[in-house]
Amino acid sequence: MVKRLVTWGKRQNLAQIPQITSYVLDPDERIRASVALVLGKIITGQRLNLEVEEAIKALETLSQDSSSEVRKLAIKSLGRVFSPKIVPTLELALKDVDLEIIEIASEILQNYKRTLPITREEGEKTLPENIAIKEAAQ
């Protein structure tokens, strides 16, 4: 099964995401780790659409896995998609018991803070009008 997942990942075909995500709860840790890795490869550089959102949901589930290796791969894979939808999962990963996962999530969040535009709803403040200039113009 791992070989099949790797083959699907090499194809980077978004249409295969539903097949891949069906293994998220597989009892075999190696398969869950492969799912996290393959989903990361497929969603790298992709625009947000239904398939990518499905992959994000699967990676969010894997980020809470009992295996720290699976959680680490899921967080790394989430960092490959540029979407504010992953921020809550990354913030939750900052509370993980594994320091490496905390470091990875922190690094991804720092990169997002440097690159995501701030909208007015998110707290952008406009400067007050300069009354002196306004009065001088009249």
TrEMBL record:
Which Pfam family is one of this chain's hits?
Answer: PDS5
User: Where, if anywhere, are coiled coils annotated?
Assistant: none
Against InterPro entries, the record matches this protein to: ARM-like (IPR011989), ARM-type_fold (IPR016024), PBS_lyase_HEAT (IPR004155)
Q: Which UniProt keywords apply?
A: Antenna complex, Phycobilisome
Q: Which domain of life is it from?
A: Bacteria
Q: Which GO terms describe its cellular component?
A: phycobilisome
Task: Tell me what this protein is called.
Answer: HEAT repeat domain-containing protein
Source organism of this protein record: Euhalothece natronophila Z-M001
